[in-house]
Amino acid sequence: MRATTAFLLPILLLPILPLRTPIERSGYPTDYFRSPLGIPLVLSGNYAEMRDGHFHGGLDIKTRDSEGYRIYAAADGYVERVKVSPYGYGNAIYVAHPNGYTTVYAHLSRFKGPIASFVRSTQYKRQSFQLDQYLKADRFPVKKGQVIALSGNSGSSTGPHLHFEVRTSSDQVPVNPLLFGFTVADSRTPRIFRVRIYPIGETSGVVSTSDQSGRRATDPLTLNVKATGDTYSIEDSPTIRAWGQIGFGIQTHDYHDGSRSRLGAYRIQLMIDGETHFLSEMERISFADTRYIHAHVDYAERRQNRRWIQRSYRLPGNRLPIYQLTDDGIVNVTPGRAIDATYIVEDAAGNKSQLRLAVNGSDLPDDGNVPVLRQMATLARYDAPFVMEHDGFRAELPANALYENTRISYTADSTVAGGFSRVHAFHDRLTPVHLRYSLSIRPDGLPENLRSKALIATIDDDGDVSAAGGKYSNGFVTTRPRSFGRFFVTVDTTAPSVASLDLDPEDKIGRRTRFRFRIKDELSGIADYDGYIDGRWSLFTYDAKRNMLTYDLDPTLATGRHILRVDVVDRKGNKTSLAVPFIR
Ligand SMILES: [Zn+2]
Q1: Which end of the chain is more exposed for a tag (fewer CB within 10 A), N or C?
Q2: How far apart are alpha carbons 291 and 482 in whole angstroms?
């Protein structure tokens, strides 16, 4: 027996198999799709990169700061949906392929070929700039490499780029496109910036010899890191002591060749004493689940310090299907025993970084950890409905609106200018809310003729007011927000503003063909907009991020005098109409 073991062992230790990358391991077809662009793929955003309120559902591909690059169908298939919107994806095409995947191309400047004429005629038929049209399989077939559109900056894009997604057609869940083998140069390893240790519950704690912050031991401990190549360690090599139960969190981002953009890492693995304790992989996240990013990350840290710290343990209400967990990722600390924690962070191309730290198990200190009971706070269970009522205030949260049991606070402040109620401070903005809930505030001194103009507004720490929507009914104004904050009743009686930028009354337009109008609304926001030439509805494109309506002159318009009109209405029914006569 001994001889056999001695013979086998050296063979098993030989690195016979090459290390496989997440792309190779995932098993998706890597030779099916071609690139949607004719230029090398450089990303300003990758899949599951963290954004406020969602994981990014695709790739943001740079288009050299300009619009108009040809967009190619990634494979044979047919157009299953086409969308035009002043928000979100802007102009977008969805192509279904026979292999069960759909590719999505968004923020386009224009559609090409028969899709372009179909969109325009449908907009005129419906008298609507916005469009979301599903199409039958035989309507617009496409060939691999066919030009279907030109790249742009439409919708809520903040600069010219192509947003590209691959979804499973049956459920429209976006899959990480890099797993399909698109060529993206990436030889750089993910970077690790910080580690955070979270005491779980009120009888757990963590302290570090390098911590000068004066924090309580029950608060999260932030640890800065230093790098030696791809291996990271905790700065100043402190001694860390913990007791009770702890969870870990990590701030890490990936980087590609030739791009300065901060991207998301593909895989985070936390080993505790040599065993995988937590593993997350950014392979597929549905739109229904994407808001769980507020539980996946340390939401308060994001709001306060703009940092994305990803938790390596699961909050009870977090339903993301991206984890492999032992004990929900929570680590039980044993007094007198040291824990060896090792992070391995990997990108889709298989580049890896590693960080190692030790946490010493300690007894609960005699002096500390007396639970602090907050006055005016009521415990809300995350998995049960929660109602809070005070004078002139009622909030009703459905079950699973929170990610963990939370002591909910409430205070009523004095009024603000323009307000028709006190300011109700409902808990705090550092706690995330997953689902919309019902919020009702009783207005004080609201004249009957202003009831239809009433809405709920929020006021932030800087005193900035923004609309939270809502309607008056039965003595209360009720809305459905998705965050905590400071709320009050106000009214919107101000009509939207409409300014003509290129056309003065009675202008002779000569060779000019494009006319822009800046439209804005102060509080409730723009609900609808329409443009007319001589009383006939005409296509005016709306770019919400620029507050801009644009009319491109109909080349068939007769010479002579015409009247252009723009109608804009806000969410409280306040209307503005601007008519500009012009001569062609
Ligand atoms: Zn995008």
Answers
A1: N
A2: 11
